[in-house]
Amino acid sequence: MSDLDVIDPATGRVVGRVPSMTADDVTKAVDLARRAQPAWAALGVDGRHEVLRRVRREIVSRRAELRDVLVAESGKPWEDAQADLLLTLSMMAHWESNAAAACADESLSTRGVWGLGRRAAATYHPHGVVGAIGPWNFPVALTFGDAVAALHAGNTVVLKPSEVTPLSTRWVAEVFAEQARALDAPDHVLSCVTGDGATGAALVAEVDMVQFTGSVRTGRVIAHACIDRSIPCSLELGGKDPWIVLADADLDRVAAAATHYGLFNGGQVCMSAERIYVEDAVHDAFVERLAARVSTLRTVAGSGPGTTDVAPMIAPGQVDVVTAHIRDALDKGARAVTGGLPTDVVHPAPTVLVDVDHTMACMTEETFGPTIPVMRVHDVDQAVALANDSAFGLTASVWTRDLARGRAIARRINAGTVSVNDAQLHVGIGHLPMGGVGASGTGARGGMDGIRKFQQRRVVVTNRSPLGRELSWLPYGRTVSAALDRAVGLLYGR
Q1: Residue 449 has pLDDT above 80, yes or no
Q2: How far apart are CA 61 and CA 405, in angstroms?
Q3: Residues 6+ apart with CB under 8 A from 63
Q4: How many CA atoms lie within 13 A of 219 on its CB side?
Q5: Cβ atoms of residues 240 and 275 within 8 Å
Q6: C-alpha dist (Å) from residue 80 to 53, 141, 164, 441, 443
Q7: Is 367 helix (H, G, I), strand (E, B) or coil?
Q8: Rounded CA gap, 365 and 8, in Å?
Q9: Separation between Cα atoms, residue 325 and residue 29, nearest integer Å
Q10: Cα separation of 477 and 396, whole Å?
Q11: Is the pLDDT of residue 1 over 80?
Q12: In angstroms, what CA-CA distances link 289 with 3, 14, 427?
């Protein structure tokens, strides 16, 4: 087993080392988790709730420590690390309040001729061991945060963080183990394996269900592996999220929102404002407001609250994608009204591109960086058509003072979630399901779907009929068959 260096992208310093675990190491971790799962499930909803509540309180009390780890391994501004922390805590609080309902038996209707004398209920059971494979942009919320619902549902979980940002996930796993031991809960309920893609592949080969957040390419590989093993998976694979700005929108608010939601976490967000379509009448006024705001943002390395604005490129090589998209756009006639081709491989300048179109990669491929391309459109119909001209379908936003019209337009956009005069924050509302369509993946966070995906549903049907035999049973008789045929006409012929 060799070690992997964890490097702060803002400074280039090595801030930690983790083992690069082999397939044998992963097999051992999953085996320990599988042995622990029956005892964890046997704690019941209330027992699991108590452990997770204690973990949440410990994270809150030591949040400065976790935030420092996040900043060190990712180079995030203090505020972006705080957002990762807050999203995680909100997920934990939501499931503490709602997991019991999701784990309870559910009475089902048995209306209809086939259901006469019968009663049915759905019961929900854990899959067993869940493998949660997370990305580098929000290494706690999108790795451990996804595991919270799985744990409440009675599964044990093996976390596999990105090799770029493994320290914060491992920190949370250690805190969980400490608090579980303090309550005499089973060991190995939540563990963490570290390494590169080979480690992740080994985990997919062993577990009973996979939760993955990451690239489309890797997600498709995981989906095929899960199909081959006949196990379920939930995939969140990113997006190319469109915004539509109508002529009646509050341009100052939209420009402020686009600045934040386009450049928050350095634009390294699957729900980032990756392409903005603005009606012709207000295009120039909007671009002027947007460029003025973006040009004031700070990209220097920060040392605490309020010291910097835009995060560095977290993953090695991501600046190459940003550079390629900007160069492609400029070569095809776009203009950069702020920023431009990166000269700093850590802190590319936030860039607003105009005169863009769908021949350019910045409008069709996920950039995942600090760029905001703005395209002029004639009307809302053209904007909707362009918004839907994408393989992705995660989120979208419509901006207008006419809320009814905004909701009507939202229904026309092919995305898992469409916000009117808002963006991104829906992911923190635990009761809302959040998932994508098309290349953005399958499955959902939040809502009942966000925990039911970690459960097997079993339907129990009870026959309460007082009859000694059913009329339709063998052997067949002419009189009964004729009566049943008449019943078909009465029941279904109207």
Answers
A1: yes
A2: 45
A3: 85
A4: 21
A5: yes
A6: 24, 12, 17, 25, 26
A7: coil
A8: 27
A9: 41
A10: 61
A11: no
A12: 48, 40, 27
Half-sphere exposure of 350 (CA within 13 A, CB side): 29
**CA–centroid distance for 219 within its chain:** 12
Annotated catalytic residues are 236, 270
Token duo for residue 212: 């993955």
Cα–Cα distance measured from residue 476 to residue 480, given in angstroms and rounded to the nearest whole number: 8
What average pLDDT does this structure show over 235-240? 95
Distances (CA, A) of 60 to 50, 86, 88, 138, 175: 15, 10, 11, 17, 11
Contacts of 164 (CB under 8 A, 6+ apart): 6, 73, 74, 136, 314, 315, 316
**φ and ψ of 279, to 5 deg:** -60, 145
Instruction: Give the integer Cα–Cα distance in Å for 59 and 278.
Output: 42
Reference 147, options 195, 192, 98, 102; nearest CA is 192
Ramachandran class of 447: left when φ > 0, alpha when ψ lies in -120 to 50, beta otherwise: left
Q: How far apart are CA 290 and CA 227, in angstroms?
A: 45
* Token reading at 394: 């995660």
Q: In this model, does residue 301 exceed pLDDT 90?
A: no
pLDDT score at 113: 87
β-strand 395-399 against 417-420: which pairing, if any?
parallel
What is the enclosing helix (H) or strand (E) of 353? strand 351-354
Question: How far apart are the C-alpha atoms of 261 and 259, rounded to whole Å?
Answer: 6
Give the list of residues 6+ apart from residue 111 with CB closer than 8 angstroms, or none.
none
Say if residues 413 and 386 touch (Cβ distance below 8 Å): no
Query: 136: which 2 tokens?
Result: 């580098």
Determine the residue type at 294: V
Closest of 283, 274, 254 to residue 420, by C-alpha: 254
**Given 3-state DSSP classes, what are the helix, strand and coil percentages for the chain, each rounded to the nearest 5?**
45, 20, 35
Contacts of residue 28, Cβ cutoff 8 Å, sequence gap at least 6: none
Structure-token pair, residue 206: 């062993």
Above 90 in pLDDT, residue 85?
yes
Q: Rounded mean pLDDT of 91-109?
A: 97
